[in-house]
Amino acid sequence: MLPPTKKTLQFLPPPLPPSTESSSSSVRASESREQSAGEMATIAVPTPVPSPAADAETLRNAVQGWGTDEKALVEILGRRTAAQRAEIRRAYASLYKESLLARLHGELSGHFQKAMVLLATEPAERDAKLAREALGRRRGDDRDAWMLIETSCAAAPDHLVAVRRAYRSLHGSSLEEDVAACPAFQEPLRKLLVSLVRSYRCGEESVDMDVARLEAAQLAEAIRRKKQPHGGEVVRIVSTRSKPQLAATLRCYKEQHGSDIEEDMKQYSSSQFARMLKIAVWCLTSPEKHFAEVIRYSILGLGTDEDALTRAIVSRADIDMKMIKQEYRVRFKTTVTDDVVGDTSGYYMEILLALVGKE
After folding, report:
1. Is the pTM above the cut of 0.90?
2. Which one of 114, 203, 292, 352 is most buried, counting C-beta atoms within 10 A?
3. Residue 355 and residue 261: Cα distance in Å, rounded?
4. Is 324 annotated as ligand-binding?
5. Residue 341 host element (H or E)
6. Does 30 or 265 have the greater pLDDT score?
7. Residue 65 assigned as binding residue
8. Separation CA 52–CA 92 (nearest Å)
9. 231 annotated ligand-binding residue
10. Residue 164's closest CA among 11, 322, 340, 348?
11. How confident is the model at residue 58, as a pLDDT?
């Protein structure tokens, strides 16, 4: 159980910068990223696509009887988009009067079970459940903070709103209240996480370059001169500005000081807060960098962090796994596929490879 809170946090939309000057290059970059999101997915949908009812029937046959046909489960759920999986869930419930998620949970086991259940779960509900798990572990380590930052920063603003709604529906409390009440996260990290999960970033594409230059200077003042990346201005800027506006600010920062903000955060602070602030910046501006790092981290070392590996691949296969694979190859001189094959096995490996796609 998460500790009760004494005070309700009130969600207020962040103030928007005045749009007095437009940065056409930043707009084009943002539009390009949005337009390429579908193109960067790695879900290999067959042609023609069977109807949801036909897929539901195949899944039903795969989980009935003495044994489970895991190959059929991988072939269907691993080769359908999130929207198609939602239609299959509804068709399955309508035809067989039971939950597909409950059936998968009861028929499967281990890491394969978790991957398939997460894959079949509606994305907002999935992230709400994962956020609850991260808070419930009460470790307060980087991995638990990752989950909250990914949900807050690596998806569209409407997705975070849907996650908050699903979280309240599932757990009877608000996500921001539970983050604020979680004793595992200490200040100033807790303040950053609360600000991120309660934010709503306007989808406005216009950029105010005067604001970008001003806020780049404010970031530099906090990080380079005062060596306080946890300052209030830093949290405000990172947790409220639209992605195009923040991207412009970070470009101004580099132009003014000759280094990326994440390089300076690493140089001037080794705190957990600074590490998580860097992750937030990555998730907001270049999420492929973060998720490539998560996959690599989950595979390196004596044991595999299957939870992190599963979350990264399941959550990004519909979005930008192609970009993640490119980043992974450049940075680590190997492929996601080779590392997954080398560190996993069985049907768990098969579903991950289906989602990663060909390399």
Report:
1. no
2. 352
3. 33
4. no
5. helix 336-343
6. 265
7. yes
8. 8
9. no
10. 11
11. 97
